[in-house]
Amino acid sequence: MPHAFARPNARRGSALLAAVIATALALAGCSAATGDTGSTTASTDGVVIEHAHGETVIPEKPERIVALGWMTPDIVAALGTNPVGIEEVWGAGESGYQPWFEDYVSEAYGEMPEIIPFTDDGPNYEAIKSLKPDLILSLYSGVTDIEYERLTEIAPTVPYIEGAWNPGTWEGMTRTVGKAMSEEAKAEELIGETDDLITSLADAHPEFDDKSFVWGLTLNEGGTDLGVYLEYDPRVRITEALGFTSTSAMDSFLASAEGDNWYTGVSLEQLYDVDADLFAAWGGSAEEGTYTVENAVVSRWAPIAAGSYVIYADAAKASAISAPTVLSLQYVLPGYVDDLAAALQGEPTIDGK
């Protein structure tokens, strides 16, 4: 299987962090969960959110939110609160912030949240405590039972809802954060605006209708399998929402997947049996993209031979579509749609460093 996978670990020194999380994001996505909004009820004591580690009571509307990991900071900011602290995540620019988050927050709030330094021993409890949060959100994470208990000693904490490193859908996470912030109506408004964007882009490109696609990974040197994502992965869902249809080989992909993985591998020997008009992929570098499309077998696969492929190695683009939010989709989708349209005309994209 290309790009050997371990669950993301966002607690490393900067060089190792980039390498570990880049590999993880290549295989990150939504697992097969469907009930991803969490069980939330109103209470005389506040909002109660049930999750994988139990339940969290949020007694009143939070004002000082620490947003850990991917996705959550975007949603908190879009819902009207500038987080007091966030973790630096893969895909961030030199400033330490993802570009769409930085643009939005600098315009909306005029100042950026503090970046919480990583540690090798779990969440940076001291740095988090120093920010005096009244809510900690870490929905896209691998927070353990012990880490959760320590975080709750600082402030009410909402970890992942169903499983480690399973954010569910972008819509579900938006609703969960909206409930935690007592901003349910605003959350629905943001979801509606994002859906409208997706619909408008799809309507502008009727040529996408009924075109089949595969979303996957670039090859490692010497690799014999091409990594592909399954139907519940966010990249696949978004591309389908734009009008494309998943490959007819999806059933075989699902049958070959192990456990609750959202990806699998296709032997290069069987690649010609995978029907697709277009191939979209993420890779670690533009060189990996070139290596993939020039592979003796891959180069003869129909979408590659036709020049109908889009390969992103740019960290921001890869992160924006792999861990999508109401902010990141605004950032990435217009360009992504342009690249898809060009690819169908035989004008491929290999974009990245």
Automatic annotation (TrEMBL):
Gene Ontology CC terms: outer membrane-bounded periplasmic space
Domain Fe/B12 periplasmic-binding, chain residue ranges per copy: 64-348
A biological process from GO: iron coordination entity transport
Location in or out of the cell: Cell envelope
Signal peptide location: 1-28
Chief localization: other
PROSITE patterns attached to this UniProt entry: FE_B12_PBP (PS50983), PROKAR_LIPOPROTEIN (PS51257)
Keywords from the UniProt entry: Signal, Transport
Similarity field: Belongs to the bacterial solute-binding protein 8 family.
Name of the protein this chain belongs to: Iron complex transport system substrate-binding protein
Organism: Plantibacter flavus
